[in-house]
Amino acid sequence: MENLTILSRNVRVHDELYSLNDLHKASGNEKRHEPNRFIRTEKIKELIQEIECYPEMGISVKAVRGGANKGTWACKELVYAYAMWISPKFHLHVIRAFDQVTNQQPKATNLNLDNVISDLPIGTRCLLYVDETGTHMMPIHNKSLVNIETVRHIQRDAKLLKNAVDDFRHRLMALSGEYSLEKLKQPLL
User: Fold this and answer.
1) Strand 17-19's sheet: what is its strand order?
2) If DSSP codes are grouped into helix, strand and coil, which group holds residue 74?
3) Between 104 and 57, where is the model more confident?
4) Distance between CA atoms of 27 and 7, rounded to whole angstroms?
5) What is the tens place of the pLDDT at every residue in 122-140?
6) Packing angle of the helix pair 76-86, 20-27 (nearest 10 deg)
7) DSSP-derived 3-state class of residue 179
8) d(CA 84, CA 179)
9) CB neighbour class for 178 (10 Å; exposed up to 12, middle 13-18, buried from 19)
10) How far apart are CA 9 and CA 93, in angstroms?
11) Longest Cα pair distance anywhere in the chain, in angstroms?
12) Cα separation of 160 and 168, whole Å?
């Protein structure tokens, strides 16, 4: 994801984490709103524990002591919580900034997954997000680690299930007299 701009202030993004220090400056740089004070609150400690229950979400917060990226870095969920902790008004600015960046991202493109997957050798791991219908891939910024062979098995199983459901539906229609027995692929019994 590209850097966010909140109230004319750039918020750096590093390893999919956002600089709470940059957010602090954008909010007015008040001492009472320093990121370290936020991170030490009980509710936020609980939120961090909850986020860390979901390994697919990645690291929730990271403190860097020195170097070009020093400061407190947090995932999007903690950025929202931090903004709300500062003020409802600042929270809205942060939500709108995220919405603006998200709306600028390319939309899912319709791809033939069979062609994409068949070009990759078995055992290849690639970064992709496949939507619920299995017909769209999202750009790499929305990613899940997927084993191509697993996707092939899921596609094969989905085809088998669809064929079984179609055959069952035809059998029911034949039993009810709505469908000719000659059109069944398998014997009725």
Assistant:
1) 13-14, 17-19, 71-74, 61-64
2) strand
3) 57
4) 8
5) 554 444 555 555 555 544 4
6) 30
7) coil
8) 61
9) exposed
10) 11
11) 80
12) 12
Q: Which residue has the tokens 């709306």?
A: 103
Task: For residue 152, count other CB atoms closer than 10 A to its CB.
Answer: 16
36, 72 Cβ separation under 8 angstroms: yes
5 DSSP β-pair partners: 10
Rounded-to-integer distance, Cα 60 and Cα 75, Å: 5
Tokens matching residue 32? 């009472």
Length, in residues, of the chain: 189
Tokens of 100: 């603006």
146-180 pLDDT, tens digit per residue, is 566 776 777 788 888 888 888 777 777 777 777 66
Question: Is residue 80 a contact partner of residue 60, using CB atoms and an 8 Å limit?
Answer: no
